[in-house]
User: Fold this.
Amino acid sequence: MHELSITKNIVAIVNERAKGRKVVRVQLEIGKLSAIVPESIRFCFDVCAKDTCLSGAKLEITEIWPIGRCHSCHQDFSLDLVNAQCPCGSRQFECITGQEMKIKEMEVE
Amino acid sequence: MCTTCGCSDDATPRIDGVHQHLHEHTHDHSHGEITHSHAHSHVHDHDHVHDHDHDHDHGHTATRSILKLEEDILAKNNLIAAENRGFFAGRKVLAINLVSSPGSGKTSLLEETIRSLSAKKAIAVIEGDQETENDAQRIRATGVKVVQINTGSGCHLEADSVAVAIKKVDPEQGSIVFIENVGNLVCPALFDLGEAAKVAMLSVTEGEDKPLKYPHMFRAATALIINKIDLLPYLKFDLEKCKENALRVNPALRIFCLSAQMQVGMDAWCDWLIDRSK
Assistant:
């Protein structure tokens, strides 16, 4: 259940940046390859945010689909987590999106 | 409960049985009529490394504003991991983060690797387990330096407790440091400890579809060890299928098939380590 320690990190970072102001919204970007389950983050968020300036804040999570860039045909393709292969057949590629674990922005009062 | 500050947090790591302070403490500071609450992260190695960053904003406005952060959620862990990486680079140490399910043979692999390599290389080990000193005792019996981290309820090692353990184990110039992570194929994939490579391990008593079931770990790894191959005649494990599954998840994975306990196939693995530590 690493999402609990991940959520504690999110709350700590936002709390630090809020400098005492009330936080009304937090937006995250979570890549599909990041091994983080958004539902678990949501589950932990209210508990971790309790008694902080994030209490009652709305949590928005944007999930980022993984995209690979093929080294053979130089095309971008939608990356399958359990079959890492370009449609052209090549397995030589780099992952250009899908690994995000980011706090994108926050809204304060 | 923490005996130093009274915090109730059994997820707090202990290093060689000594409790480490990696808690979040909230302090209230009064500035005239305004009271601010600050969260501080303290890494106490009983020689007190404090990171106090006070940044006060006294502007008070009722209007809402959006702050763009673009900040990595694991930024704090990644920063400490980068410091660990710098420490290793400074001593020309090869650091290997060994990850697997419980019981696939990580400690046995380390015992045999130490026996094979200790004449050529200085080796040190950082052991991660939720509880007990058992693995550290097994490694200590081989004669190398070892530090045990107990994570309590924590399911993975993080860079901060490893930072403390590295300094305690004090690896020699040009040595190899093995970090045996908590037996878990999920969470350790996320947390950079400052290693040169993650090495994932599975044994033939597990399913050959494990790389497909836990793709994050096999994708994060540089090498895969398939252990206990001496048991293959007694099992329905399809070794070629297992390799194929692992390569489907991570085509760049270097695979070693061996039996640590029967000392079969150890040479290719040890040569790979020696090669990388040059």
About this structure: The first strand of chain B starts at residue 14 and ends at 15. Helices of chain B lie at 75-90, 106-117, 134-140, 159-169, 210-213, 215-220, 239-249, 266-276. Chain B touches chain A through 45 residues (CB under 8 Å). The radius of gyration of chain B is 21 Å.
